[in-house]
Specification:
This is HTH tetR-type domain-containing protein. InterPro entries: Homeodomain-like_sf, HTH-type_TetR-like_transc_reg, HTH_TetR, Tet_transcr_reg_TetR-rel_C_sf. Keywords: DNA-binding, Transcription, Transcription regulation. It is a single chain. This protein has 10 helices and no strands. By secondary structure, the chain is mainly alpha-helical. It is elongated. The protein has 2 domains: about 60 residues, Arc Repressor Mutant, subunit A (Orthogonal Bundle), CATH 1.10.10.60; about 130 residues, Tetracycline Repressor, domain 2, CATH 1.10.357. The longest helix is centred in the middle third of the chain and has 29 residues.
Length: about 220
């Protein structure tokens, strides 16, 4: 029987996928390190390739251009994985949504932040600095900032669902307060510059938000 018209078979190799993922992880790790230590403007794609031990063409194929690298590094730092993860799919957000009381929700979020900020805050600061002179970085900075603000409004709505949120201030105002205090800049000020421990930072946030947001 002729097989001329038989559909072409696709070859799937788990090992190949694993190798591709490992290469991408190495590229992002090298980019993260160089953006933080050297700055975005002074770092070239060739520099990242040398640090990761891959060719420039491999970087373009695996991630993209330099602005794509920075976006991928930021998203990876937020999610703790090699890929962007929507807020609703993150483990701590799911646990937060299931928590019965506002105090539990606040505590879960504060604890999550002290796990996220050590990897996010340095690269976020690099993005902030690069946004001053680079249009792509400025657009990414604004996008991430607005996304954080929208997520904080959802957080406030979730606190309100318990009936414990204060009602003498607008919800948008309360969301902005959380947005300002969960920012990487706040972590850098207290932990990096003032020497607070992560546990101290988490306890402070939980206590401060409980006093500021709840009745």
């Amino acid at each position: 029987m002729s097989e001329v018209n038989a559909p072409a078979r696709r070859y799937h190799s788990p090992r190949r996928r694993e190798q591709a993922a490992a290469t991408r992880d190495a590229i992002l790790a090298a980019a993260h390190e160089m953006f933080v230590t050297e700055g975005y403007a002074r770092t070239t794609v060739a520099d990242i390739g040398r640090r990761a031990g891959v060719a420039v063409d491999t970087i373009y194929a695996a991630v993209g251009r330099k602005p794509d690298l920075l976006r991928a590094v930021v998203e990876s730092a937020i999610s703790g994985t090699g890929q962007a993860v929507p807020a609703e799919e993150r483990d701590y957000v799911r646990r937060l949504r299931r928590a019965a009381t506002a105090a539990e929700k606040i505590s879960i979020y504060a604890d999550a932040l002290v796990r996220i900020q050590p990897r996010l805050a340095p690269v976020y600061a690099a993005l902030r600095d690069a946004a001053v002179t680079d249009g792509d970085c400025d657009a990414l900075w604004k996008q991430i900032s607005e996304r954080r603000a929208a997520n904080m409004r959802k957080f406030i709505d979730d606190l309100a669902s318990t009936g414990e949120l204060r009602n003498d201030r607008p919800a948008a105002e309360l969301a902005d307060v959380v947005w300002s205090m969960n920012g990487p800049e706040y972590w850098l000020l207290l932990v990096d510059q003032r020497g607070w421990t992560p546990a101290q930072f988490a306890a402070w946030l939980a206590d401060a938000w409980g006093r500021l947001l709840l009745e």
